[in-house]
Amino acid sequence: AGLARLGMKLPRSPGKLRVLGSLAAVRIALRGRSPHEILHLPEMKDARVLAGMDLMMAMTPSAFFTNQNLFAVVALRMTAMSLKRGNCRVSAYGYITYAILLLDALGDIKGGVRFARLAVTLGERLDNAGLRAKIGVIFGAFINHWDAPIARSIVLLRNAYRHGLETGDLVYAGYALANRMFAAVVRGEAL
To answer: Using an 8 Å Cβ cutoff, are 8 and 52 in contact?
Structure first.
């Protein structure tokens, strides 16, 4: 309902065709753009679109756990909006969720890791304290293990937990702690 009030439509239960259409739109928007160009997009200014980006970021965890197609459409919409209208305080979150799709749904390890690193760099450049836990959890739990040792994931998740506590983001602090314990078990550490 919140997105509709902002004039943005998002299907409640998107099918695979909607996901593929959203993916195609992002792929077209990315054509010919380097990571450097994406990092240096102009700043998103439209208050309505900024509010929509915040709402989509807030709904992403629920969509991830309940409806993977909805998660994909939201991640792709955030990415497409950033590519079209410029980067904003939560664009890094959209980009890192897009990286999850590249890795898990499309098997594009190189592209997924590259896009995730772009998201981390943008997050650091924008210095949004509220995103540190989110980006750290997503990178540590879903991205890092594709090309780096699990020990690095544990460090990332430990830092994400600390950032979550420091900023009051207790949901992502909890995700960080749970995933940190999982990574430790995978690594063979005693809990």
So the answer is: yes
